[in-house]
Amino acid sequence: MRILVTGGAGFLGSHLCERLLTDGNEVVCLDNFFTGSKQNISSFAANPGFELVRHDVIDPFKFEVDQIYNLACPASPPHYQYNPIKTIKTSVMGAINALGLAKRLRARVFQASTSEVYGDPQVHPQPETYWGHVNPIGRRSCYDEGKRCAETLFFDYHRENKVDIRVVRIFNTYGPRMHEADGRVVSNFIVQALKGEDITVYGDGTQTRSFCYVDDLIEGFVRMMGQTETPGPVNLGNPGEFTMMELAELTLKLVGGRSKIVHKRLPADDPKQRRPDITLAQKVLGKWEPKVPLEDGLKRTIAYFRKRL
Ligand code: NAD
Ligand code: UDP
Questions:
Q1: How far is CA 259 from CA 4, 238, 305, in A?
Q2: Which residue from 52, 90, 58, 61 is spatially nearest to 73, judged by alpha carbons?
Q3: Which one of the ligands is nearest to 79 CA?
Q4: If you measure from the C-alpha of residue 66 to the centroid of ligand 1, how many angstroms do you get, rounded to a whole number?
Q5: Ligand 2 centre and the CA of 185: distance in Å?
Q6: CA 23, 24, 26: angle at the middle one, nearest 5?
Q7: Residues with Cβ < 8 Å from 211, sequence gap 6 or more?
Q8: Is the pLDDT of residue 259 over 90?
Q9: CB 269 less than 6 A from any atom of ligand 2
Q10: Is the CB of 79 under 6 A from ligand 2?
Q11: If you measure from the C-alpha of residue 62 to the centroid of ligand 2, how many angstroms do you get, rounded to a whole number?
Q12: Residue 112 Cβ contacting ligand 1 at under 6 Å
């Protein structure tokens, strides 16, 4: 197949492009390089099945492809809050443009949605049936509400125009090719520990997240796109749940060195707890479940950053 990946030069997008090429597909990677980079795709850029297009998803795009994965959108809080209006445009207009193309081509189209649609959840762990607890006017809203609106668009195009959609809600995923200055917690802690700088825990560090290694997630993407049982939404993530203090201590132990843990102000609306209920994914994605424990995934990610720094 020929497959379009928007946001293909980003962290997840580059791993997805690589996997699709390995499976024998042709890949068109579309990216505006806001948070992505040519370096992320350098190891497979010379593959004759790979094409790179610099383009912004808020402007319509036209390709002849069999499938579309829509990943374009900054994902780390500092990056998506840098230009919040642009973030909403990227989510909403990007979704409309991806769906319009899918409609014309009768192509299956995948949306990288997020656990942020659950906001600061009052149900724990979060099943897909939970509608969420989202502040519509806060600093995180440009991302959360943009992604919620994109889900709405996907399901309206599905109901109104019979577009063949697949929607996944991704929980915190980490691994090699995260940007050194990405700002998300795993890369921040690793880079700080490797540089011997203070490890910045926001708030008291009792808030929790569930961390999925990138390879496990990408396997889930491909299985989601390959099945016909449900358009989604389907949660994808690792149900192992850790406090940020636990993550800081584990990172320090694995990196070694003499960094100190310091506490910084907790950002507004920071969700207090998050863990995916992956019952549905296990059922519809051929017994899919994450295989890489946090410690192993951190070791691989640390090895990547050690080389880069
Ligand atoms: P990332 O920032 O590394 O990748 C995003 C990519 O999209 C980058 O290459 C960026 O340059 C590109 N992009 C941004 N705006 C664009 C635009 N207007 N036009 C074209 N390209 C644009 O982040 P990531 O972690 O790889 O996330 C990929 C997708 O997965 C995003 O949609 C994100 O919301 C979603 N997601 C990721 C996670 C996670 O934990 N990594 C969690 C939930 C959802
Ligand atoms: N966090 C932290 N130190 C950092 C970066 C983030 O303690 O240097 C915390 C943040 O407040 C949040 C958790 O780690 O509670 C996950 O943050 P991230 O930005 O990775 O993702 P998200 O909040 O979107 O899940």
A1: 42, 28, 16
A2: 90
A3: 1
A4: 22
A5: 5
A6: 115
A7: 172, 173, 174, 186, 238, 240, 242, 247, 294, 297
A8: yes
A9: no
A10: no
A11: 36
A12: yes
In the block, tokens 């990288």 appear at 112
Domains recognised in the chain with CATH numbers: 2-175+211-239+273-291 (3.40.50.720)
The bridge status of strand 2-6 relative to strand 26-31 is parallel
For residue 225, the SS3 value is helix
> What's the Cα-to-Cα distance from 106 to each of 103, 165, 184, 217, rounded to whole Å?
5, 10, 36, 26
**Does the CB atom of residue 115 touch ligand 2 within 6 A?**
no
Residue type, 231: P
- DSSP 8-state symbol, 3: E
* Separation of CA 247 and ligand 2 centre (Å): 11
Decide whether any atom of ligand 1 lies within 6 Å of the 57 Cβ.
yes
- 157-191, pLDDT tens digit by residue? 999 999 999 999 999 999 999 999 999 999 999 99
Tell me, letter by letter, the H, E, C secondary structure of 57-95.
CCCCCCCCCCEEEECCCCCCHHHHHHCHHHHHHHHHHHH
Q: Using CA positions, which residue lies closest to atom 6 of ligand 2?
A: 185
Please list the active-site residues.
143
Residue whose CA is closest, atom 27 of ligand 1? 75
* pTM for the whole structure: 0.98
Kindly report, residue by residue over 15-58, the tens digit of the pLDDT. 999 999 999 999 999 999 999 999 999 999 999 999 999 999 99
Establish whether residue 10 lines the binding site of ligand 1, counting it when its CB lies within 6 angstroms of any ligand atom.
yes
Which ranges of the chain would DSSP assign to H, the alpha helix? 11-22, 38-41, 77-82, 84-105, 141-161, 185-195, 214-226, 244-255, 279-284, 294-308
Tell me whether residue 275 is exposed, middle or buried, using C-beta atoms within 10 angstroms of its C-beta: 0 to 12, 13 to 18, 19 or more: buried
Report whether 15 contacts 80 (CB < 8 A): no
Tokens representing 23 are 């499976």
Cα separation of 111 and 274, whole Å? 21
CA of 72, closest atom in ligand 1: 7
